[in-house]
Specification:
Layout lengths: L1 E3 L5 H9 L8 E5 L4 H10 L10 H17 L5 E8 L14 E8 L4 E2 L5 H7 L8 E2 L5 E5 L11 E2 L10 E7 L16
Helix pairs in contact: 1-3, 2-3
Length: about 190
């Protein structure tokens, strides 16, 4: 697992602090890396509405992360998922069935993970797990191995439990295409 710790720009932070839940982007697309800005713009603007004021720093940042992933994972298409979460999402400790994945959390607490020595215990104990726990910092970009090769070497992780706390999370997840990817999105402009 590799974590790139970074600080958001003042403009990005300002937009995230002002954004209401309906304004947060939500969706999943299969796109070429150079289409990230257009796809994110459509996710933010909805069907024909204008992009929320001040959202360009988010679009720029997320697009850059998508392009970085495509450079690491040399692939022509990328599976991009943006998720606005107010519940426990993937609360179970698990390994993703992908070669590797990129996750960054723009809003709220970041992804939790355990060291390899504690993986079996976390997978077994689930909500009762009381061992050491690590967290990717908010705005940190984590790239970690999955278990698609059938090994038990993928990083064991989960979404932090937030149900009932009033917290919101905005997550960007990027993968190479797989059988679970959406159909290629060719219509990147609102109708």
């Amino acid at each position: 697992m590799v974590v790139w710790t970074r600080q958001p720009s003042v403009e990005l932070m300002s937009w995230l602090e002002r954004a209401s839940r309906p304004a947060l982007p939500h969706g999943r697309v299969l796109i070429a890396p150079d289409e990230a800005e257009a796809a994110l713009t459509v996710m933010l603007s909805g069907a024909g509405a204008s992009v929320p004021d001040g959202a360009q720093p988010f679009i720029d940042d997320a697009s850059e992360i998508v392009r970085h992933f495509a450079g690491i994972a040399p692939c022509d298409l990328v599976d991009v998922r943006l998720e606005a979460v107010t519940h426990d999402a993937c609360w179970k400790f698990h390994r993703d069935c992908v070669p590797f994945r990129l996750i960054t959390t723009y809003l709220g607490p970041g992804t939790e993970y355990v060291d390899p020595a504690n993986a079996a215990c976390a997978l077994n104990d689930q909500r009762d797990y009381a061992g050491p726990l690590n967290r990717v910092p908010t705005f940190g970009v984590a790239v970690f191995r999955g278990s698609s090769d059938g090994s038990a070497l993928g990083v064991v992780h989960r979404s932090p439990p937030i149900a009932g706390t009033g917290l919101r999370r905005l997550i960007l997840c990027v993968n190479a295409p797989s059988i679970t990817s959406p159909v290629r999105w060719d219509s990147l402009s609102p109708a």
